[in-house]
Amino acid sequence: MEKLDAAYWIKQLGLIRHPEGGWFVETYRSMESVSGNALPDRFFGDRSFCTAIYFLLEQGDFSALHRIKSDELWHFYAGGRLNIEVISPAGLYEQKILGSDPANGESFQVAVPAGSWFGAKAVDGFALVGCTVAPGFDFTDFELGRSQDLSRQFPQNDELIRRMTRI
Fold first, then answer.
1. pLDDT digits over 28-64, tens only?
2. Whole-structure pTM over 0.85, yes or no?
3. If you ran DSSP here, which 8-state letter would residue 153 be given?
4. Hey, is 43 helix, strand or coil?
5. CA-closest candidate to residue 135, choices 12, 63, 43, 64
6. I want to staple 88 with a disulfide (CB 3.0 to 4.6 A). Which of 39, 57, 92, 157 is the partner?
7. Contact at 8 Å (CB) between 120 and 72?
């Protein structure tokens, strides 16, 4: 039997590189959609009801700070703990821990509210997780954080921002 490491999951699930870091594959996109007229003003155009992906981070890699226009629910599947670093639109910092050990503050599911800046880092080896977005994810709703802009907007989070951005 193959060792169930990051390389195994990347191959078995057909994961590809994600622009924010890590590996992913879309596993679900609702066939139905919500009209753009029925969505809040922050959306432009129709959106699928819901989308889901597998997402994997290896030790030493990170998901760079980014934000989307929908809530995002993260689910833990395999590997080690994943720290999700969140900065609210008001600049409040919160760390959410995804994993399989609730006695150590880990949760199998965590939610990141729409409009929050967030990124993630695997703590113990790799982490295989899932992300569900509703209304569904669209790359037009994705914004990758720029270090200089975020540090200017949230100076109290400068160290985190420098650590968790790529541009």
1. 999 999 999 999 999 999 999 999 999 999 999 999 9
2. yes
3. H
4. coil
5. 43
6. 92
7. no
